[in-house]
Each structure stands twice: as C-alpha cells, then as structure tokens.
Sequence to fold (756 residues):
Amino acid sequence: MSVLLGKVCSLILEEHFGEIVSKVGTDLFQWGPKPLALVASSTKLSIDKVKQSLCVLLQYGLATFAPGKSGRVAEYTIQTEKIFSLLRYPRYLYLIKSKFGVEAETLVEEFLRVGFDSASRLIVKAATRLQESQKGSDNASAYLSTLRDKFVSLVNKQFLMRCPSPTPVDEEKGEKPTGIPNLTVSKTQLHLPPTLNMKALTQLLEGEVADAGDEGVYWRVNFDRFHQDFRDQIMVAAIARRIDDNASEIFQLLLQLMYIRTDPWVRVSNPIPYSELRDTLRKKDPQSPILPHLDQYLKIIEEDSSGFITRVGDSGGGQFCINMHKSFEALTWTCIENIIVERFGSKAARIFRLVKDRRFIEQEKIQQIAMIPAREAKQLTYRLMHENFLQLQELRKTMATNAGPNKTFFLFHIDLEEVARMILDLSYKALYNAMNRRDFETNENRRLIEKKNRIHSIALSLQAQGAPAEQLQEIEEMMAPPEVDLFNKVMRRVQKLSEAELHLEETIFLMQLFLSYNMQ
Amino acid sequence: MAGRGRGRGGGPSFNREISERMGIAPGSSETPVESVLEPPPLFPPLESRPVPLELGVEGEYLLALKRDFVGYFHDSPSFIQNVVVKSDNIQRYSDRYQNATLSLKTVADIVRDWSHFPTELRDNVKPQKIKRKLKGSTRRAKIPKKTEDITNRLEELEKREEEGSDAEGETEGKETEGAKDENKENKDADSDAEEVEEEDVDEEMDDGTDYINNYFDNGEEYLDEEDDNLEDGPVY
Fold:
C-alpha cells in the first residue's frame, strides 16, 4: 500500500464525509488496527467526534472492527477498497439501471446512501422517492410490489447480500458480554431472499407501525459482484474492438456458461464444451446469423494473440477455457503501451514492444532491430528506463566482483508487475492531483458559485409563482457578464477534472484487477 | 540514468566506462548528469498534448450521479463538522440559519442498529471507563489515609508513652495487646492497599492505555466516590 493511496483515500473521505472523518480514516490507514482511545489520542480530536466518525465509517462498511489481543477492546481497521468504491458509486448505479431498470436503481441508490438497512424500510423509502420523481402517479403503493420483486432478483443475482448479524452472548458457557458484537452470517443465508409481508409494507408506507417480518435482518451492497460485472464488460468490449460484435456476443455467452461451473474469481475457468455453447446460442435465437460461423469465430478468438480462451480438449466438439489471468495480462500490456505512445511517442512504444518480445535485449540490438537511428534509440531507451518502464539487468561474464563494465552485458527487460504497480501509483497521484485541483477551483470561487446558486433558486421559485419574463430577466441580470464568463470557465474546468477522475478510475480498476490476479 | 550504480564506489572512470559500454560517446550531451541538486519542478512542462477526454451521454449521467451523491452526503448527518464555538456573545443574523441546519444532524440518525456496533461507540454508554475510575479513585484515596494513619499512630504512641511512664507496671499487658491490635489493623489496611495496587497494575499491563484513560476525564464522576471515602476516615 502506497503513501499516495492513503492520500487519495483521505481526500475521498473528506469529499464525502468531511474533514473529521477523513482525519480518523487517515489515522487508521497510517497505523493499522487501533482501539478507540488511541485514535482519539493520536488525532487529537474529542472522543465524541472520534466515536461519531467511527460510527459513520462502520455504517458505510468503510471500516471493520474486531476484538484486539486482550479481547476486551475493539480495534478498528480501515478498508481502502471500500473507500475507493465510493468513487465508483455512479458506475454501480449505471450498471444496475441498464440491467434491471429505474426501480432497481433507486433501490440500490438508497442502499448506497445509508450503508446497510432492512429490506422493508428501504423499499418503502424507494417507493416514496419514485412517487416524488414521477408526479403523475400519486399512489406510491403501486411501486411496492415491483420494488419487492426487484429486491428479490437483486438478492438472487447476488448484487445485494445479507449483513452479518450479532450472535447473542452465551452466558451459560461462561462468556461474558464484552461490548464487542460478534458478527456472523451463514453461507446459506447470505443470498437467501427475504419473505416480506406486502400488507405490512403498505401500512409502513402510510406511516403506520407494522411488522414486515424482517426485524433485525439487514442488507448491504455486494461490491464484488459489481466488480465482476465490470470485469466482464471490459473483456467483452475488448473482444468487440479486436474482432467484431458477433465475437463479443459469443464471448458473453461463454462467460455466462462459465459461471455455471466455475467460481467467478479464479484465474482459469473450468472447460466449457462446444456443444453446450451451440445449444445455448440456438435456444437464444434459432435464426442467429452467428450459428453457422460459430466454429470459425471460436477459432479466431482462440488464435488471437491475447489468449482470452484456449482449447483444452476435443471431446464434445471441443472444450474451451477462459483465461482470466492471461486476458488481463494482455489488457495491461496494451494499456501500458498506449500510455507510452501518448507520453513518449510511437517510436518509444516500438522499443517497448521489442523489449517485451525479446524478453532480454542489449542496447545495440535494440538500435538494429527497431530500425531507429542509434542516437534516438539510445535516448528513448534510457528515457523509458528512467521513467521505470524498462528495467536493466547486468550479466557478468566472469564471477569476479570487480569485473569492469567491459566484461558485463547490460540487458533491458520489462517486469510487468513492477510497471503495473508504477502505473497504479501514477494514477493515484494523478487522481489526487485532479481532486485537489478541483477542490482548489471550487474553494477559490466559492462566493461566485454560491451567488449563482442563489440566483438560480430565486429564479426557479419566481418561475413557479408565475412571474413575468421581464422579472426573470432582471433576476438573471443580477450577475454581471464578466461574472457569468468566469463562472462558466470555472465550471468547465471542474467538469473536465471530474471527467479525468472518471477515466483515471477505469485505469486504476484495470491495474488493480491485474495485480489481484497476479497475486493469486 | 538516475539510480543505476547507486551505492557503488565507482569513480568518474567507472562511469565513463559504463557510458562507453552503453554506447554514449564521452563528452557528448548524452552523458549522464553527475548530480541533481534541486527537486524536480512542481509543475513540469507538458511535453505532448494529452488526448482530449471523450464524454458521452453515459459519462454525463455518471457525473450528475456523482454530484448527487456528494451533495447528499454533504447534507446528511454523516458529514461530521466541527461545531464552532464562538468566543463572543454577538448575535449574528446568520446564526439563525446555521443553528437550524446543525441541530438537525446527529450521527445517531444514520445508525440503524446499535447492536451491530461495539458498545463503546454509543454516546451515553461508557462501561469500561467507569470501572477504571473506581480503581483509580480508591488508589488516590488510600495514599492520604495511610499518611494519616502514621501520624495518628505516632501521636497515640506518644500519649501512651507519657501515660505509661506514670503507671508502667499496671498497664503493660493491656498496652501490648492494644498495640498488637493496632498493628493488625494497620497491616490489614496495608495489605488492602497493596492488593488494590496489584490489581491496578494488572489492568494497566493489558493495554498500556492508562494515560489515556485518565486523560479523558470529563469530570462527571468527580467527588462521587472520593467523597464517601474521605468522610469515612480511618476507623479505630
């Protein structure tokens, strides 16, 4: 874990939950698991504030707690991945919206807003919100049954999971209440949809007290499942870019079949028989134009240099494995190559590819094979090495320790994992800079932005009252033209920085995924 | 070039040798810079113009969602702020609105179920602290008691000595008895104090947070336990 990651995390926390939570989070990041009192003493915050901050972190799942060594004091641990997922909230919602529709999106949004909650309360909340957003329908209870169905399907697809609940202290066995709940959940219950009493839900919606039958059962968002979908999207999109849409459709089907028999996060999937793939395709669309060319398409995907799938057997028309690890290695290579093209030009990228291809290569060979003038090739190679894209390996001809450089080969090579880590750090840094700059821009022009917002709200309320156009015009003119110009300029800048953050987040996701596969 | 040959005691000739091996002519502009004495610039010049960012409808939707989220969290109780304590008593016009927004926010609103949290995080519960305070206060109270004992005893002994010189033979037996009793009592008290101290040491050895426990004294229990102890006084 790098220093930069810590900095980014504290900025993210500050943006969402304010300075105090961020201070507590940073402290936990720097020192690892820590009890409440120590956090308070090292952050120099009042104990009440620290308590509140920890409550917030725990509520949103950004921190966890466990009994410390003595077993009597709870120690808190920060979850950096979860903090990073705060940045991905919009992407999660977009995914849900495209897969399950608006109702499910509202439901997940409510979950993300509160961290964890019981199903009944959330459904009621979502129903009220849906009713508010669509003013035409005045009956919120109409949404209840759809929302419940969506909830059940989200749980079935594992986008939501059950929160571990505290096990009661067993006094008979001599256990003493420690004040630290022991949170557990059994595997069978994790994705078991709840049975909800519709009548009680309707009563709850009308503000009455009712028992919907899920007291003490809480649900939270399963981020891993979302990441799994993001991963599939990346792979399918890559196939579509490299071959064509039909191939990507086949690949999508292969992924679906993979989940039937394989754990989603393994490096290489279990074999998928060809016949099964053909049957599924036929079932889906008997007139599919891909069907006659299925063989060829599979062959093309298989023979592609990125190695997304491999043929492992011939029984049943052929058996195919999906190489998760290999595909992400290929994607990472491509990503790094693109970065080099953009930063150092295509000639540098050619040298990089050459070193990748030859594994270990001397400087002179690079000049010859890359067909770049000697001087330029040298400059570019050393530049890449300087920026840590290439590594240098010395190989001595003799074993003598004081052998001069004349007796040594200097071989260039690439350590992909190291480069990926470097890129990841670079992205963290860029993200940190972008967020910092955005904060700076907004703070610098806070007065202007607030003024604009105020004028906007006044104009809106007047419009609602049916004020004449002249009056509205007058309100709009309260901001001088240079102010408007400045405002637009600032907004454009902020917008651009936010876009950059979105894109950076994608690179970070790719690198993290590659590294996590490499660690397995 | 930086970083290569770090930690090796090579002189300039060694560097030149390496440069030759790597194909750099000595004296040319490509030779490595010997030492850099200043940090890299804070805003390095941009060498190539970055590719313009593409933002489709999807991207705009994502940005809007992000703004919504950040806005929501800002207004929610989970956005913890320092309550500014004003040193002066001047009434401000803006106070009316600030207080209204601040008073609505408490973290307790967002917490769904306290049974999922360690009890120490709850606002009004502090079980461990109270326990420790008891121990601490007994220890503090014991020390003055002990000194009092000694002075009392000395005084008493003095008195007895005076009495004893008057009528030595008669009271000798009684006196020794009384002294024994005194001793016994004192010993008991001493051993009590020792026990308490030992217990305290045990407590502290667990996590070594003694300083913090004492440090965060909100003063609520002040004089609660100590009062009793002081009034009791030594018993003879």
In short: Chain B is about 55% helix and 0% strand. Residues 127-166 of chain B form the longest helix (40 residues). Residues 57-121 of chain B form one domain. Residues 1-11, 125-143, 168-176, 191-209 of chain B have pLDDT under 50 and may be disordered.
